[in-house]
């Protein structure tokens, strides 16, 4: 929240949110490093403002949207090396090695992993025992729901290893949110057992004229009524599609960005006051006086912090080193406990 400018309008706040989420994820990862935490986590963060939904995620904890007519939309991107060719190319270009676990005799088993560390994800928070090219920069997507509302299903990989997005959505239609979440978990356990973290949160975004519907009533008595509001039946042909048209009953895609380059995500259109003394780091939100400390530029020379040309907003020395390390230009282990 500290990365969002104060005193701005609601529309400007929503516009600034994706950039602030990127800063928050990177800052959290730096905090993990400084504390010496070796284990890491996937993360999916959802911000609901009226009918506008913004989702930031790293890893494979998926968030799906189920709307009236039964259209299921995926609001996250799975950062699994096995399935994401673009992320494999990025990791190898940054200095990592992508391969399967090699047993004695040269036999390769399991999913594609990144070495060092053997992580099968290309993005996460923490995981300080792997290379810096496993980045905490989230995929961010912002959509506007139709006037009929919708249902968000947010779950960890133990759910999605067992159930498809369509199966999870269909399994709990017509049920109150809390009961729906429990049913999704139960269905996943029934399908594959408890093999990984199996956690689910269901959030219903319902128009104000339907808010009088008691959420705690028996699902059997209210099942048909709830289905008629936002969770109706659908054809299989619309699985995974996200409509960009602006019309009644359609989901409007407002923003989507998944680049792993911090410069592209923070952008050049930063508030002008961020470039005036004192300098505030766009990631960690720490103020520094002009010319306080030295920063290393990309060719190894020393220069004062304000004059370092990288095209984005001001970054403090630690966050600049973190940025370079994520791009394969420099290791930041010496300064951040990796």
UniProtKB/TrEMBL annotation:
EC number(s) from the headed UniProt entry? 3.1.3.16
Query: What name does UniProt use for this protein?
Result: protein-serine/threonine phosphatase
| Enzyme class label | hydrolase
Report if keyword Hydrolase is assigned: yes
Keywords (A to Z) from UniProt: Hydrolase, Protein phosphatase
SMART domains, per the entry: PP2Cc
Q: Give the catalysed reaction(s), semicolon-separated.
A: O-phospho-L-threonyl-[protein] + H2O = L-threonyl-[protein] + phosphate; O-phospho-L-seryl-[protein] + H2O = L-seryl-[protein] + phosphate
Q: Which residues form the PPM-type phosphatase domain?
A: 1-205
Q: Which GO terms describe its molecular function?
A: protein serine/threonine phosphatase activity
Q: Which InterPro entries match?
A: PP2C, PPM-type-like_dom_sf, PPM-type_phosphatase-like_dom
Q: Name one Pfam family in it.
A: PP2C
């Amino acid at each position: 929240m500290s990365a969002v400018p104060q005193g701005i309008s609601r529309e400007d706040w929503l516009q600034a949110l994706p950039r602030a989420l990127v800063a928050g994820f990177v800052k959290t990862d730096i905090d993990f490093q400084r504390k010496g935490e070796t284990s890491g986590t996937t993360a999916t963060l959802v911000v609901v403002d009226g009918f506008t939904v913004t989702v930031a995620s790293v890893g494979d904890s998926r968030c799906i949207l189920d709307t009236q007519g039964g259209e299921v939309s995926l609001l996250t991107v799975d950062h699994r090396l096995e399935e994401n060719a673009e992320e494999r190319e990025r990791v190898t270009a940054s200095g990592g090695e992508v391969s399967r676990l090699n047993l004695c005799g040269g036999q390769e088993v399991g999913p594609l992993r990144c070495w060092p560390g053997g992580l099968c994800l290309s993005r996460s928070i923490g995981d300080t025992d792997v290379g810096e090219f496993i980045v905490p920069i989230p995929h961010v997507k912002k959509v506007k729901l139709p006037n009929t509302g919708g249902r968000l299903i947010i779950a960890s990989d133990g759910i999605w290893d067992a159930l498809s997005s369509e199966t999870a959505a269909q399994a709990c239609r017509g049920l109150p949110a809390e009961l729906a979440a429990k049913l999704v978990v139960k269905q996943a356990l029934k399908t594959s057992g408890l093999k990984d973290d199996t956690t689910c949160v269901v959030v219903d975004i319902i128009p104000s004229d339907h808010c009088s519907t008691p959420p705690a009533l028996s699902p059997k008595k209210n099942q048909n009524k709830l289905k008629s509001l936002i969770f109706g039946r659908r054809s299989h042909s619309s699985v995974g599609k996200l409509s960009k048209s602006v019309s009644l009953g359609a989901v409007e895609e407002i923003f989507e960005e998944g680049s792993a380059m911090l410069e592209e995500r923070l952008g050049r259109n930063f508030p002008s006051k961020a470039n005036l003394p004192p300098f505030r780091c766009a990631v960690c939100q720490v103020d520094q006086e002009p010319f306080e400390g030295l920063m290393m530029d990309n060719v190894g020379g020393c220069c004062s912090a304000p004059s370092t040309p990288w095209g984005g907003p001001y970054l403090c020395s630690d966050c600049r080193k973190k940025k370079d390390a994520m791009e394969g230009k420099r290791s930041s282990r010496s300064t951040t406990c990796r």
